[in-house]
């Protein structure tokens, strides 16, 4: 059996990259296209950010992802996407939004998605949480910004993440994620910590320790990640293994019109290709 997948992430509304994704799909006829977060453009001022992203998701994205043929499209949002607009994605029957959900890929495999990332230095906090449970009790200075804004239908709402009890570690302990990991493909925006998939431009590792612990404990079949645009250039590799689990990052950078994506057969993880168009 075969099941061909095109995977990418972090397009951030780059229309040239979306067009290349659609063109490739018409050429190689995948069974599914998966986009692992940061779907919408972000180069707006805060006052218009939510509405401009909403317009893109409602009007432009369906046009850009209008691929011919019987192709399943799976999406998750990333930390630069406004969660207040997720209803626009969910009402479009051309694609499945799989954050905090699992759904069937084939008779043998399911796919599950997760959008949250560890707390960043940035101001938009829709998709940020404490990473480990113990992180809630850390003190002192670090590179994280706990104060910021979350999107709502009526605009931005101020938030202080220090007041939250929620963690990525707790989320990943849910049955949605722990069920049949050996037969599940996980789409997780943040990469696992201290790997070749989470190296930012200054050489520091910014991935999730909880995601790495989840992989070590549950030994999933495959994980696909994004979030850190430059990691492939920094590490020289788009994949690695944690135990027997294959972990992949697209390493796509929306600031270039060159699109980086992953093409593979779900039933043959020994032959995974990263292509730049």
What would you note in describing this structure?
The chain has one domain (4-276): Purple Acid Phosphatase, chain A, domain 2 (4-Layer Sandwich), CATH 3.60.21. It is built from 7 helices and 16 strands. Strands 4-3-2-1-15-16 form a 6-stranded mixed beta sheet. It has a 6-stranded mixed beta sheet with strand order 5-6-11-12-14-13. Helix 6 links the parallel strand 11 (184-188) and strand 12 (222-225). The protein is an alpha/beta fold. It has helices at residues 15-28, 46-64, 86-90, 168-171, 175-178, 209-218, 231-235; strands at 4-8, 32-36, 72-76, 96-97, 102-104, 110-114, 117-118, 128-129, 147-152, 155-160, 184-188, 222-225, 239-242, 245-249, 260-265, 268-276. It is globular, with a radius of gyration of 18 Å.
Low-confidence stretches: none
Named CATH architecture: 4-Layer Sandwich
CATH fold descriptor? Purple Acid Phosphatase, chain A, domain 2
Strand content: 25-35%
Number of strands: 16
The secondary-structure element order is EHEHEHEEEEEEEHHEHEHEEEE
Highest-level CATH class:
Alpha Beta
Domain count: the total is: 1
Structural topology:
Elements (H helix, E strand, L loop, with lengths): L3 E5 L6 H14 L3 E5 L9 H19 L7 E5 L9 H5 L5 E2 L4 E3 L5 E5 L2 E2 L9 E2 L17 E6 L2 E6 L7 H4 L3 H4 L5 E5 L20 H10 L3 E4 L5 H5 L3 E4 L2 E5 L10 E6 L2 E9 L1
Parallel strand pairs: 1-2, 2-3, 3-4, 6-11, 7-8, 11-12, 12-14
Antiparallel strand pairs: 1-15, 5-6, 9-10, 13-14, 15-16
């Amino acid at each position: 059996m075969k099941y061909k997948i095109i995977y990418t992430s972090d397009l951030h509304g780059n229309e040239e990259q979306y067009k290349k994704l659609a063109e490739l799909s018409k050429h190689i006829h995948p069974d599914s296209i998966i986009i692992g977060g940061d779907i919408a453009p972000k180069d707006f001022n805060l006052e218009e950010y939510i509405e401009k992203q909403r317009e893109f998701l409602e009007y432009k994205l369906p046009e850009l992802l209008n691929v011919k043929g019987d192709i399943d499209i799976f999406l998750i949002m990333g930390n630069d996407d406004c969660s207040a607009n997720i209803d626009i994605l969910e009402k479009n029957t051309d694609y499945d939004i799989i954050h905090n959900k699992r759904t069937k890929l084939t008779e043998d495999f399911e796919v599950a998605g997760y959008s949250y990332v560890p707390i960043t230095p940035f101001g938009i906090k829709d998709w940020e949480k404490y990473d480990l449970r113990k992180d809630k009790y850390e003190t002192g200075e670090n590179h994280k910004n706990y104060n910021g804004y979350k999107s709502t239908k009526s605009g931005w709402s101020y938030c202080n993440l220090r007041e939250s009890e929620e963690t990525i570690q707790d989320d990943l302990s849910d049955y949605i994620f722990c069920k049949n990991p050996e037969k599940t493909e996980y789409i997780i925006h943040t990469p696992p910590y201290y790997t070749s998939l989470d190296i930012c431009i200054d050489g520091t590792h910014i991935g999730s320790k909880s995601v790495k612990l989840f992989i070590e404990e549950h030994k999933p079949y495959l994980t696909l990640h994004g979030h850190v645009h430059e990691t492939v250039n920094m590490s020289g590799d788009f994949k690695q293994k944690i135990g027997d689990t294959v972990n992949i990052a697209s390493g796509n950078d929306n600031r270039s019109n060159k699109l980086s994506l992953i093409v593979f057969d779900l039933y043959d993880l020994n032959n995974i290709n990263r292509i730049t168009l």
